[in-house]
Design goal:
This protein is α+β, with helices and mostly antiparallel strands and 144 residues long. It is 17% helix and 42% strand. The protein has 2 helices and 9 strands; from the N terminus they run H-E-E-E-E-E-E-H-E-E-E. It has helices spanning 2-18, 106-112; strands spanning 31-37, 51-56, 61-67, 72-77, 86-93, 97-105, 119-125, 128-132, 139-143. The strands form 2 sheets. Strands 4-1-7-8-9 form a 5-stranded mixed beta sheet, with no helix packed on it. Strands 3-2-5-6 form a 4-stranded antiparallel beta sheet. A hairpin with a 6-residue loop joins strand 8 (128-132) and strand 9 (139-143). The chain starts with a helix and ends with a strand.
């Protein structure tokens, strides 16, 4: 009987996974999150950080990064089995503005991040934080 359980259970699990709709099996994919500093230099000298970005989830703090113009902050994640994976960031433009935003949300990843190489593309700009599905067309999702 023990041998039957050891064969039947993995087989049942495999068949169940194969019948899941595409959006419900997304936890197998590796997503890439990119946040780029596209802020103007204004009074900051070149090479001096003007954006401070801290990103984390409930279980993982990726840490704060001091970013110079054009620098990209990148990390990878997968969707957990309960499909509740969430990474949020706080962007602080030195001496000017601060804003929090959701950089990765599991239940919107299949719509927003699967178009361009499984990547969520963000750009921090003078008037807000922009998102792109394809790295070509950008939308101001989080105005300052």
């Amino acid at each position: 009987m023990g041998n039957l359980k050891s064969v039947a259970l993995p087989l049942l699990l495999a068949v169940s996974i194969m019948h899941l709709p595409f959006s419900e099996s997304l936890w197998f994919f590796n997503y890439h999150i990119h946040v780029t500093n596209d802020l103007p230099l204004l009074n900051s000298p070149p090479g001096k950080p003007n954006l401070f970005l801290r990103c984390k989830s409930k279980n993982k703090d990726i840490g704060e990064r001091a970013m110079v113009k054009g620098q990209d902050y990148t990390w990878d994640t997968k969707i957990n089995l309960s499909q509740t994976t969430l990474f949020f960031c706080n962007a602080r433009w030195e001496g000017r503005k601060s804003r929090s935003f959701d950089a990765f949300v599991a239940n919107r990843a299949d719509r927003q991040c699967s178009v361009y190489h499984m990547s969520c593309m963000w750009s921090v700009r003078e008037d807000g934080i922009y998102f792109s599905r394809n790295n070509a067309t950008w939308f101001n999702e989080y105005p300052w």
